[in-house]
């Protein structure tokens, strides 16, 4: 087997594993039994330790190598990422793992719209049609019963959309960062998020049980450290169509976990909505002018 083929297959397995693991994030959050601020605070602590070790092992440039502009933009993404993680974690408690994850995956289409409105990025009629299809799929996935004002589900939907909006900005800013590897950016985000959330009063270590510590550590070490390392390592070695397809293993895994572990099954209309979002996502991604391979890894999955 040629070395290039073996490398590509390994990259496919790494990206697939990363997205499948990320689909179990909601279960770890629920089983930790902690509030969103506490979950994300300890995620940042454990995640920073994991990413620091990875960056050192991979021989990536240290934080001191960043220019002042890059450092400021990286810190800004850290503030946005902390808010994104808190909102997504809150959404899980209101609408469950599957629906929160599905709604969050409207994020790529927000990137398209914000990129066109704020940065003047090209938005063809075809891409706009894909975006419209995605939002139609979102409405079908949400279902009219969860849109009633004041209902907990409506709060959860709003949190998931808010998280997606913040992460769309992380993506747009990261595109304008040069010379900052993805893992280094994630390290900065965790280092920024920890003190930011400490001000909001996360649960003290002494009141967290041993089992809960296991779930919290998993969120930081597995879903932030391991998953992000897998994704960042695989993306530069894969063609864009492969990345686009494998990315949707994440919501599929989340739906499966919600069904198997918690017995929450998606309705036929929601399945149709998911299908429309996936189809639109492929249309937007594959229709974007780009080279065969990604020039540099962008942000890892925002949740």
Describe this structure in words.
This protein has 303 residues and is mainly α. The chain has one domain. It is 74% helix and 0% strand. The chain has 13 helices and no strands. The longest helix is centred in the first third of the chain and has 28 residues, at 68-95. Residues 290-297 have low confidence and may be disordered.
State the helical fraction: over 70%
C-alpha Rg (nearest Å): 19 Å
- Sketch the major β-sheet: none
- Global structural class: mainly alpha
Q: Number of DSSP helices?
A: 13
Number of E-state strands: 0
Q: Secondary-structure element order, as H and E?
A: HHHHHHHHHHHHH
Mean pLDDT, all residues: 88
Low-confidence parts: 290-297
N-end to C-end Cα span: 36 Å
- Approximate shape: globular
Residues in β-strands, percent: under 5%
Whole-number tally of structural domains: 1
